[in-house]
Amino acid sequence: MTLEEYTDRFTGMLNFDERKGYEGYIVHSERLVEFARTIRDELGYDYLSSVTGVDYLPDEQIEVVYHAYRSQGGPGLVFKVQVPRINPIVPSLVSIFPGADFQEREAWDLLGIRFEGHPNLRRILMWEGFHGHPLRKDWEEPYFEESEKPFNSRWPEGKAFRIEENKPFKKNVQYPPEFTPDGWIPEADTALYSGMVRLGAKDAGNGRSLETDQILVNLGPQHPSTHGVFRMVVSLDGEEIADLQPVLGYLHRNHEKIGERNTYLMNMPFTDRLDYLASMGNNFGYALAVEKLMGITPPERAEYIRVMMAELTRIVSHLFSIGTLLNDLGAFFTPMLYALTERELILDIFEAVSGSRMMCNYFRFGGVARDLPEGILEKVYELVTERLPRKVDELDTYLTDNEIVRTRSIGIGVLPREQAIEYSAAGPVLRASGVGYDVRRAESYSIYDRFDFDVAIRHNGDVYDRYLVRLEEIRQSLRILQQVVRDIPDGEFQTGKPQYQVRVPPGESYGRVENPKGELGFYIVSNGKPNPWRYHIRSPSFINLTAFGEMCKGHKIADVVAILGSIDIVLGEVDR
Amino acid sequence: MGDDLNGPEYQVPEELRSHITITTLDRIYNWGRRSSVWPMMFGLACCAIEMICVAASRYDFSRFGMEVMRPSPRQSDLMIVSGTVTKKMIPQIVRLYNQMPEPKYVLAMGACASGGGPFKEGYNVVSGVDKFIPVDVYVPGCPPTPQALLNGLIKLQEKIDTQSIRTVRWYKREASEPIPIPILGPDLIDPRDIPILDAKRASVVKPDVPENS
Fold first, then answer.
1. Which residue among A142, A179, A182 sits closest to B123, beta carbon to beta carbon?
2. Mind telling me how many Å the CA of B98 is from chain A's nearest CA?
3. In 3D, which of A323, A300, A313, A400 has the Cα closest to residue A349?
């Protein structure tokens, strides 16, 4: 059944997006909720991958873009809502796709789109009280120079200056003209605290149980088990968790605003710093999105090199993740040392190939930056056939049947199958809940359709299963790598001549890859200029956190860090 | 201990050489401190991963007496600011710094912590942690390699070696003032800037007020 058959039901409210280079449907905001319910219940698009907004300043319009997929796999459905730029109001889809929760809050925070019916529409990345919505095209940051790079002011010789010298406070700050610091009362998280579920009062007065006091505990942002600057507010009933709210934004470093000033190529090193444990995976997603717009495909050898790097990255990331999970379970640093030893060997390969251990910046549009250095294939071959399989088995022997690991993780943080899809969970979190959704298989990109590998899947959806899925994914990655090393052809590593300034035709594209943390998507809107008009990142860690509160409810406070460790967040990607 | 601690002024009898060392108070004090710099377990961003690598087996900074990473600022001597300092995070960083007991040191790891790095122009990014807290050692790189961080830590040890009990700030008569904690207003407010902010506002507003109305 196709969508066209539904146009009758939505007469005049559902139109094909006919702009050149665009795809999908434009839905009138009045019928959005109904449309979303239709595609979920009748057409099977049950997985809302990405929600974001675009500020079309010249048209005086704001557009909210939704990407929905079927959890069985296959191509997606793009639909959009257009509202006027001044006071834009869009109905919230949280009631139909709870996974839209954080993404709508982000769109409110950064673009000022009000989602009607959202249960908790507060700022998420910036703090309450911050002035303005930074991703609006007419909002200028304190260090604003020009709207596009390269900055002409920096171009002629002898004009080098430090931007802070020109600023009144010598700092990266600006205040509204009428602002007085005297009367300012900083936001004390009162809205956040008062919104927390309170359990203590529920048994009061029935005489059967003691009334317990409710305690609010703040974990983070400085906490050794939060994997960075992540904060969560936990409401406790005794030792049990009544409610949990993640507080994000402590590492919000404005990727998207900077990315929209940058040229396309300039963004490549910035993508490295998203999920900084999987830099080349991020490169891959961004390169795919831009290549889709440009309509080019990399040569064979480059594809093989890309897959090789992406899979090595997956191993690195999963090793690190298993190490930190064990840290969080209380096995402090010893399993981590085992994992890091192997990670270093792969980082050596990255350093030889790209010149950097972590921030590789190796992919280019239409290929990779340079060819593999001599002797590196032999090294990879030895690693993926000899050493790593042995070491993964070793980790397996030490950890999988360990009694403490099992008791601390089996049955903890359960995310049932239906909820995992509803909350748009991705990657190992989704697959541990029994959904065999892997972008490499579901909507195969690059040359993944050539390789023989299995999608790791488990069915209990708890911390233990997520750990097992990661372990299995390392093994599958090794399988892919063995095939890559066997089959890699000689030839070019770049389509055409390498360019500093690529020409990107106008249009939109959504490129997504299966990153170690889950589905990483890049939504790019080009207007034909050297800079992207919109550059949005659908980050898996960020969206996986939407279900975090649900997973924790009813568990003990000590399990929170274990559950967080099993989601495996990277703050660079959560906050961007 | 041994030869490198021994001051040259006093001769220790040959038979006591293995038991007795005569040295200056500064040297023994600095030797003790430089050999047990406890960093705070505090990661901000990408650089924190390299910091973890420095703690792991290949680079292993326990060789320098630094393996005891403390999760609490009350027990740590060194704050490694490992990553981008954002406006939302800086109040916490300043608070953590204030909570550290003297003597305390700060190492700005990587481009972001030193000066904003690639994200400097971002609206939520502080252009270097030294805008708020004093920094002892800057380590360049994005992220710095583990070797670079180790070199920075050795530089810090060298800095500790040059300090003297008579001049260091934590033995001064007057107690050192805590750094005022920044406020999250419509933008980040440094309390030390409030007088400038007021003056600026006064100079802007005054001409608008009609004298005889």
1. A142
2. 14
3. A313
Which one, of A529, A455, A540, A80, lies nearest residue A275 by Cα?
Answer: A540
What pTM value is reported for the model? 0.89
Name chain B contacts of A181, Cβ cutoff 8 Å. Answer: 183, 185, 189, 194, 197-198
Contacts of B87 in chain A (CB under 8 A): 172
A104: amino acid identity, one letter: E
Least CB–CB distance from A143: residue in B56, B87, B121:
B121
- Interval A445-488: pLDDT, tens: 889 988 999 999 999 989 999 999 999 999 999 999 999 999 99
Q: How far apart are CA A42 and CA B161, in angstroms?
A: 73
Tell me, yes or no, whether A45 lies in a domain: yes
Q: What is the predicted ipTM? A: 0.88
Last residue of a domain, one of A160, A190, A220: A190
Closest CA to A461 of A516, A405, A416, A518: A416
Among A399, A499, A546, A501, CA closest to A99 = A546
Contact across the interface for B185 and A186, Cβ inside 8 Å:
yes
pLDDT tens figures, B173-213: 887 788 898 888 888 888 888 888 777 777 765 555 454 54
- A436 burial via Cβ count (<10 Å: 0-12, 13-18, 19+): middle
DSSP for A321-388 reads HHHHHHHHHT--SHHHHHHHHHHHHHHHHHHHHHS-SS----EETTEESSPPPTTHHHHHHHIIIIIH
Gap between the Cα atoms of A394 and A474, Å rounded: 13
A177: tokens are: 């003209």
Q: Please enumerate in sequence order all residues whose Cβ is within 8 A of that of A336, keeping only pairs 6 or more positions apart, or say none.
A: A323, A324, A326, A327, B52, B56
Domain that includes residue A118, residue range: 1-151+170-190
Which CATH number covers residue A464?
A: 1.10.645.10
Q: Which of A273, A343, A354, A574 to mutate to test the interface with B (most CBs of B within 10 A)?
A: A273
Judge residue B11's burial from the number of C-beta atoms within 10 Å of its C-beta, 0-12 exposed, 13-18 middle, 19 or more buried.
exposed
Q: Is residue A569 in a domain?
A: yes
